[in-house]
Amino acid sequence: MNAPKAKKIDKSLEIHGHQRNDPFFWLNERENPEVLQYLEEENAYCDFVMKDTEELQEQLFQEMKARYKEDDESLPYFFNEYWYVVKFQKGKEYPLFYRHFKSLENEAELMLDVNEMAAGKDFYDVGSFSVSVNNQLAAFSEDIIGRRIYTILLKNLETGEFLTDKIENTTGKTVWAADNEHFFYIRKDETLRAFQIYRHKIGTSQEEDVLVFHEEDETFDVSVYKSKSLEYIFIASSSTISDEHWFIPSNNVFAEWQVIQKREDDLEYAVEHYQNDFYIITNEGDATNFKIMKTSVDQPSKEHWKEVIPHKKETLLEGFEIFKDYFVIEERTEGLLQLKIIDNSTGKSHYLPFDEPTYTAYVGLNLDFDTEVLRYGYTSLTTPSSTYEYNMKTGETKLLKQQEVLGGTFDAKNYISERIWANSRDGKVKIPISLVYHKDTPKSAETPLLLYGYGSYGHTIDASFSNVRLSILDRGFIYAIAHVRGGEYLGREWYDNGKMLKKKNTFFDFIDAAKFLISENYTSPKHLYAMGGSAGGLLMGAVMNYEPEIFNGIVAQVPFVDVVTTMLDETIPLTTGEFDEWGNPKKKKYYDYMLSYSPYDNIEAKNYPNTLITTGFHDSQVQYWEPAKWVAKLRDLKTDNNILIFKTDMKSGHGGASGRFESLKEDALEYAFLLKLENNGRN
Known about the structure:
- It is built from 12 helices and 37 strands.
- By secondary structure, it is of the alpha+beta class.
- Among the domains are: about 225-310, Beta Barrel (Lipocalin); about 330-405, no CATH class; about 415-680, Alpha/Beta hydrolase fold, catalytic domain (Rossmann fold, 3-Layer(aba) Sandwich), CATH 3.40.50.1820.
- Helix 2 packs across helix 12 (about 665-680) and helix 6 packs across helix 7.
- The longest helix has 19 residues, at about 665-680.
- Cleaves peptide bonds on the C-terminal side of prolyl residues within peptides that are up to approximately 30 amino acids long. Has an absolute requirement for an X-Pro bond in the trans configuration immediately preceding the Pro-Y scissible bond.
- It comes from Cloacibacterium normanense.
């Protein structure tokens, strides 16, 4: 079977006096039968190329699935007189939401069976589930396409009946007012930007809903949330570099919204409430790694802010949790998350002890103010996800739940994790790399290694456990994460030096990390593989263009690769809100820089690694046509005989298939691709 060949239709794109020809531009015609035919041809070709791995894919899928406890349930949490639990039943793909009145010993009340809601649908996702203050009504949201556009529905928990209320085109989130008659929700515009906050009254139609906030600046998105104290409802409007928050008392939905601090360029802040004060985490006053302030509810603007936790150059403040007698801070120092406990009465502080070389820890769900117990999470490359309770007064730690790994073969002692540091080509930094491998896996030029990367939006890829990953670790792979610039692993400057006109640092850091692993004899180019998704797919496309010869295979998941064309089109979801991440190409300096690295625009007639590219036809974050065009152009220009396959899930979006286990088939395909290459490489 020959590889598909997309037809070419010249399309001239011009700006700043510069012309580009995009012969595959037509692939963005979602309803065009020829586009659908091309995608199906690529799917058929992918199946053909991977035909010899069908048994392996099924084996991988079954062993991945077998590690999960099918009849699992979440850790219960208590809130407003009820214990809440989410359960999974054997043989079912979707969760069931339960609650118990006052005691877990009391009979469980089934609030929602998502399996029933998803019956007969190709895709189904519940975006949120929230219960009214009087515990009588539940608002939940559903997406049946995969485009992250949710419809909000209501259920009477006392009668089991669904209300007639139906609210469409939302982000899915609902925030209940204290009166049990109203809630707030967020609408999306045609580019899927969250831009309006509405108030809904139970029992009325969506047409009667009241608009309470409209964000007209297309670079800002809005959100709505309730304070932990439950006393205030906040609206947050945020861009990459600026925030603005408004508030009303939760018991008065008709109150006038008050601003905490008007937006300013480069002023970021987030707010929580305790007693008579707002606590604010902010970068105000050049606090690059953030500091914590507080101010009276009556005088919330920044001239009244008083410092509680000062800025530290070497430590990034990521968040905080307020209790009656304690204050808990999430800090990141030298890449590792730490939890700092402060006694409000004495001012004394201490850290929770974590001793693995690379891990992640985080504050969990803590809804109770008046408690001395902190619930927190911990995981590492060798430790399954775990939830603990820590008594902040006595220092006692109790394990509440740890992710079970079934199948009878997993023992954490059989795996080794490390953190090493590679030199960057600019000589300015060292790039952290987290690794994990089976104790019987040697480090050598013959050892396969999968290097993962992301590096955008300040999003940090921490070292965490993966059930799925065991399938390649147990087959002799080393797995590594390159913590490249563009994330916030080493603080806010680490992010700032991997965005806008410094974006290439992200790509070069990944390449330098790969070369370091080769030089240190962890692997070799014949056995080195790379993987990344979304903006991490951009990373994959860029490193393929820069130095294709150091990778034997690349997996690019839902890749953002047509950077210039997408960022010039403000009708595409997310574009306007990301000018502070990538730059606005309508300004020539950003256009020129973006054009110099955009993967699609820099494909050349040369050899490329073996490549698997995946997407979802309904993807709302990265439109399917970006990877489709990229594949078509690669096929047209590449000079090698290496594998290039493209898989489009015609039923899903950015997050892949819905359901608990269906997405494992995507993992199985990716791992089978890597193992196919690796086995061929050994012949």
